[in-house]
Amino acid sequence: MNLKLLVTAGDGIGPEVTNEAVKVLEEVMALGGHTLALEHKRIGGIAITTDGTPLPADTLAAALASDAVFLGAVGGNEFNALPPDKRPEAGLLAIRSALGGFANLRPAFAFKELAVNSPLRSEIIDGADILFVRELLGGLYFGQPRQWDKAKGEAWNTMRYTRDQVIRIAFSLAQKRRKKLCSVDKANVLEVSQLWRATVIEVAAEFPDVQLEHQYVDAMAMHLMNRPRDFDVVLTENLFGDILSDESGVITGSLGMLPSATIGGKVNLYEPIHGSAPDIAGKGLANPIGAILTGALILRHTAGLEAEAAAIESSVRKVLERGFRTTDLARGNTQGLTVLSTTEMGAKVRETVKQLLAVSSQLLA
Asked: Is 230 among the catalytic positions?
């Protein structure tokens, strides 16, 4: 397998965590006899500073010529005064739109070892394993018209949807999991949600083996906190999916643990869901696990290397089982735990995945 991967590490902690994830990918690909061709380009705040734009033309060209794009995080306080279309986040929205990926996959799962990190009781989150499927190119983030009229003191955005393929992708993924799908909308108020629900019901007829339920977004926000184990695949639109999947960070215990994949377009885009965290950038405090698990999604959804992806995920669990933590995961009583820096955690995962794959090779020999 030859994988051509563009790395856009971005801002803040983005380069730190992405670097550790890439090292894990290089280790796994080499052990499997695969080729990983890396290219590095700028996006976000660093691109504004260096190139005068949040998405340079050569970055976009390299992205479109790659098999997948691995994004760190973008943003920084020094850019907050810029107009919205000039900020680092504009580069993120632009590359998402250009690559065309409309289905954003955001897994949220409970690690038994991190139950103490969650504000929820362990008996509520134990065994929770949710895959959020978020529509990524529609809704308020991209709908037109949109405007901020400072003179009049008013602003508006447009939530607009057409019949979308993301629904079919969500049902297909549910078939491969526990065959349950919850569609989240606000159909009691919004016409776009009424279209959404009607389309979900229509597509559901093609997947009779998948159990379908509907929830309003406000109710779903509560259900995620009091009965997360009841949900398998959660399908929703752009804004709702952004909020709900971030909320699910309390199930895992830290936003630093959560990966994501954007599929369905010309080139798949992968990024951990946490932000650039400029307050801890360069201090070795960032948790690289979300980025490392994002690397596993690259192997699964673009490279088709399921065994290697699973090995990375198993390695993360084993490292946690052995009591290794980054600062965000070492809250409260740290007795029996070993707190690691960003690079040290990355090294532990690499060491463990190397051992796992070596054992697998011996068993197959």
From this structure: no
Q: Please indicate whether residue 141 is annotated as part of the active site.
A: yes
- pTM for the whole structure: 0.90
Q: How many structural domains comprise the chain?
A: 2
Burial (0-12, 13-18, 19+ Cβ within 10 Å), 254: buried
* Same domain (yes/no): 128, 238: yes
CATH code for the domain in which residue 64 is found: 3.40.718.10
Range of the domain at 148: 119-252
Whether 146 maps to a domain, the answer reads yes
Beta-strand pair 35-40/211-216: unpaired
Q: What is the mean pLDDT of each run of 10 residues along the chain (365 residues)?
A: 96 97 97 96 97 98 98 94 93 93 93 88 93 92 88 90 84 96 97 95 97 98 96 96 91 90 96 93 96 97 95 96 93 82 98 88 49
- Return the DSSP state at 138: S
What gap in Å lies between CA 114 and CA 324, rounded to an integer? 11
Please say whether the beta carbons of 79 and 18 come within 8 A.
no
Q: Are 311 and 353 in contact (CB under 8 A)?
A: yes
218 has catalytic annotation: yes
Q: Of 41, 141, 232, 270, which one is the catalytic site residue? A: 141
Query: How many CB atoms neighbour CB 67 within 10 A?
Result: 16
Structure tokens at 253: 């215990």
Specify whether 279 is catalytic: no
Peptide bond into 259 cis (omega under 30): no
The H or E element containing residue 130 is strand 129-135
